[in-house]
Amino acid sequence: MVKRYGFPLLLALLLAAGTPALAAAPLPDIPKAIKGEQCVEDTGFMRRNHMALLEHQRDDTVQRGIRTRQHSLKHCFTCHVVQDDHSQPVTAADPRHFCRVCHDYAAVQVDCWQCHVSIPEPSATSLRGGQP
Amino acid sequence: MSDEKALSGEKVMNNKIDSYKRRFLAQSAVITGAAALGGGLVLTRVVQARPASQAVSSKNRWGLLIDTRKCANDCDACVQACEMEHGWGRGSSDEQRSSPAQKAQWIRKVTLRDRTTGHETSLPMMCQHCAHPPCVDVCPTGASMKRDDGIVLVDKHRCIGCRYCMMACPYKARSFIHEDLHGQKTASPRGKGTVESCNLCVHRVDQGKIPACAEACPEKAILFGDLKDADSEIARRLASEPSTEIRGDLRLDLGVRYQNI
Questions:
Q1: What is the pTM of this model?
Q2: Which residues does A contribute to its contact with B (CB < 8 Å)?
Q3: Which of A43, A68, A105, B187 has the fewest CB atoms within 10 Å around its CB?
């Protein structure tokens, strides 16, 4: 019984409480991309399916050596960059980071940043020992 | 050519002899073609980098040939290049609390000393990219894997950090990350709780470049190439010069071979 009527009841209560209760949790303010007219796929599609694309790409790259740019994780940060007060790109350790804003809102935690760099590659190519 | 007719006419012939015959026919066709171009024209094969969208294939097998006579005792340019490329050792300020034995080590210099003569041989030691890798056999999750082109590596997305592969490796080629890291390189993601080892610089090889160690060696002691391409320098040298597999008695069919040890 509880199972059957629980949800409509909750909904009715929420509706009864009126809009203020719903407005209490503001939607995330997603930072705008700094580059590009559009995303690597349709924006609506990306919003819902970015995780599937990334997970597919990681297996393609690591296991099959496929290195296309379109769905590559490092490629996301050529456009999705949030800068701090000193115009430096923030990493995923910062709640303002592009990938953090929605995830924090939806209580999603990803482990990617334990290994992956979450800012664009430095333009000056990193030090490489002993090469011309 | 009556043979050719017979081949195309009959689909039933699928035994060994026929495949030999077919290959012979194909080859003679190429030779005829080359001859038709006339003298003075040399055909060299253009080696093209694989397109980014194309998967690796077992048509290639990447490997190294290391000439220890060119490897100086006091030089570790290859180690340093690896550290900088992948962001470990001197290429990183992480792993402060790990002991030297615990720290990452993708490649190291080893000195062999003949007790009788005192002669010393120096060589770089890293993952030997076995064709039959014990680390892959023991991995419970499929994280320790061999790509179709022979490169042995850890898929860190699947690695649970059990370290069976470290125990199984006869070359002590793998290490485990004990601490949170911060200064990783974009091209080489690394993180706590996973095992890692030399991956022959997959990210470079996939772009048609050679591994960082081979590029950095001032004596060109490390030769990188395709063992399955009979025309490659590495395959030609392996065919014409003696080389050694370390612990060849294990019959793991190594992708890394040494000379003059």
A1: 0.84
A2: 58-60, 62-69, 74, 111, 114-117, 121, 126-131
A3: A43
